[in-house]
Amino acid sequence: MKSLTSVLLVSLFISQIQAQDVYEDALTAASYAYAHSKKAHEANNVFHTQEYADKAFEAFDKVEMLSDKCGCPEANEMAYEAKSNMESSLGEDTYERSRYYAKQARELGPKILEQLSDCRANNEDLASNEDMDSVDEDIVLAATEEVSRKQLELEEQRRQLEIEQEKLKQQIAEQEVAKAEFEAMRAAELIEQTAIKTKAEQALSKLENALQELGIAFNEETMFESQEEYSRSESDLKNETLEDTKSFYVNRAKELTEIAMEQLASYSENE
């Protein structure tokens, strides 16, 4: 009988420990889900919003499964709702609508964490009220040691989660810095492209006028006809690099020169 009691008690402790593992896994997944949904809501374009929304969707899906496993119906329902919002966010093609659904999911994040924490606390209270008066002291000691070991493992898991969260923050910060540097570089490049555009178009216009005047000097008013293929808009510059802009105007200058040379050669032959 004593042996049977010992087996049952150990089984009880193991079940409680496993239940705590499920709670910890659910809380960890909920923390990731909230962090990703927060980033999705705070993103400044639809690409980044949906990038984090996809990660949040997977995390909320895991929370939904784990909260059901550990018997937390309120958290389970909220996780399902948050997951559905993230799915809607991924299905939108505009930044405003995608961000709207990400916000709905983000607001559920803290509530899910609170429900899971309450659910775990209630479970621990029930376990602490068990009548242990008739339990063998050696069995209690062994079970206590097992619980302590599991608690140490959970603490290590929490530390690892904090490390991962810090890494995620650092990666996001680095991405923001890189983005800002690129935008600044692109803005400076666009200014240089605009300056080249202005000077090159003025120079090409003067070259064209000079060639037309040359034709008039030779009494050949039609010797050179205006091309006017070098005038461009600001949007053209935004869709190309600085080198592309330089190459464009160099090629236009070559074309004008080649046309002029061909027509001058034709004029000489006619003489």
What can you tell me about this protein's structure?
The protein has 271 residues and is mostly helical. The protein is built from seven helices and no strands. The protein is rod-shaped. The termini are far apart. Residues 1-19 form the signal peptide. Keywords: Coiled coil, Signal. This is DUF4398 domain-containing protein.
Show unreliable segments: 1-19, 131-135
Question: How would you spell out the order of helices and strands?
Answer: HHHHHHH
Number of helices: 7
Would you tell me the structural class of the helices and strands? mainly alpha
What shape does the CA trace take?
A: rod-shaped
Most strands sheet: none
Hey, roughly how much beta strand do the residues contain?
Answer: under 5%
* Relative helix content: over 70%
Report how far apart the termini are: 128 Å
Q: What gyration radius follows from the Cα positions, in whole Å?
A: 36 Å
Number of strands: 0
Mean pLDDT: 81
For the structure shown, list the relevant keywords.
single chain; 271 residues; mainly alpha; 7 helices; 86% helix; signal
What would a concise description of this structure say?
The chain has 271 residues and is mainly alpha-helical.
Please outline the helices and strands.
Blueprint: H1 2-42, H2 46-69, H3 73-91, H4 95-128, H5 137-217, H6 234-238, H7 242-270
Helix pairs in contact: 1-2, 1-4, 1-5, 2-3, 2-4, 3-4, 5-7
